[in-house]
Specification:
155 residues, 26% helix
């Protein structure tokens, strides 16, 4: 899990940050995040190398996850305290649509676990891949082609 020995990432760490342009509601994940996990999530994520694709920070109880190369925010998640930990009560994703929203929810959960907390979940990745994976998130919608969002922005 993330080390708590550093200060949390803030919006000031990301001068190129831009908010989700066209937020689409995502079904919130049902995971109950422990207090230790929430502390790690609140630290955020600051990429150290060009190969690291995501950055993240928390404002109040809202996690914002953006592309490291562009600062463009692709995901927002609102957390709320619940008995035994924290739950996501609202989620939004850039480029999601009704048929892909569940995949985006799983992907954000995977980003939180693997990239932010450093605790990848192999079974969740297998479930994500079985449901269509990345190509399922950005493939053509039923009935026609669709360009991937952010293609010009490094996505």
């Amino acid at each position: 899990m993330a080390s708590i020995s550093r200060p949390p990432a803030t919006r000031a760490d990301f001068p190129c940050f831009s908010p989700v342009l066209e937020p689409y509601p995502l079904p919130p994940v049902t995971r109950l995040w422990t207090a230790d996990q929430w502390a790690g999530i609140r630290l955020g994520l600051v990429s150290r190398e060009m190969e690291e694709r995501w950055d993240a920070f928390v404002e109040d109880d809202r996690l914002l996850v953006m592309r490291s190369w562009t600062g463009r925010c692709f995901y927002e998640a609102v957390f709320a305290p619940r008995p035994g930990g924290w739950r996501i009560t609202g989620m939004w994703g850039e480029g999601a649509r009704p048929d892909t929203a569940p995949l985006h929810s799983l992907f954000l959960e995977l980003l939180i676990l693997g990239s932010i907390l450093g605790t990848p979940d192999r079974a969740l990745w297998e479930r994500f891949d079985a449901l269509g994976g990345l190509s399922g998130m950005y493939g053509p919608p039923p009935g026609g082609p669709r360009a991937r969002p952010g293609r010009q922005g490094g996505h």
